[in-house]
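Duplicate of #3305? Posting structure anyway:
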């Protein structure tokens, strides 16, 4: 995401990360990865619940697909860190328009399942060209209210 930050900005996209840890952990994460994106802390998992992001079980960590992703990440020079927070929480990516409506959603199938920044940029481009994507009626304003509480 960091490498594509200028492309997101050029498309009018504001990236906001949501993490499970406290503000100190979010700040350490920001510094470790040299991020400029705002990070919303959600230790009570209110946003995760509002956006219906699921949790996984212990068996998923031993699955061949997750092990393959770990080996692939190592081969690309990414270090495996010590897991923090709720290791069972599955990730998600949402594109929310200015009215708070979810215009694109991606629900991770395992803890390492994230769409590439390029796929997200493609989805943004399609939205910018008024192509219809599957819309979901979910609480798009939840992130705004929690972000206000944190700041």
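Output from current build:
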């Amino acid at each position: 995401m960091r490498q594509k930050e200028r492309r997101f900005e050029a498309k009018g996209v504001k990236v906001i990360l949501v993490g499970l840890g406290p503000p100190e952990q979010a700040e350490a994460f920001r510094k470790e990865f040299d991020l400029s994106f705002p990070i919303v802390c959600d230790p009570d998992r209110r946003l995760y619940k509002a956006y219906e992001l699921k949790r996984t079980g212990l068996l998923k960590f031993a699955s061949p697909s997750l092990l393959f992703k770990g080996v692939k990440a190592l081969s690309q020079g990414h270090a495996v860190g010590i897991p923090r927070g709720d290791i069972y929480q599955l990730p998600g990516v949402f594109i929310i328009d200015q009215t708070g409506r979810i215009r694109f959603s991606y629900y991770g199938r395992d803890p390492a399942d994230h769409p590439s920044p390029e796929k997200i940029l493609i989805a943004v481009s399609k939205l910018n060209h008024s192509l219809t994507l599957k819309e979901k009626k979910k609480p798009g304003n939840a992130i705004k209210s929690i972000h206000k509480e944190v700041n």
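Confirmed duplicate; merging threads. Strands lie at 17-19, 39-41, 92-96, 102-107. Residues 14 and 88 are 27 Å apart (CA to CA).
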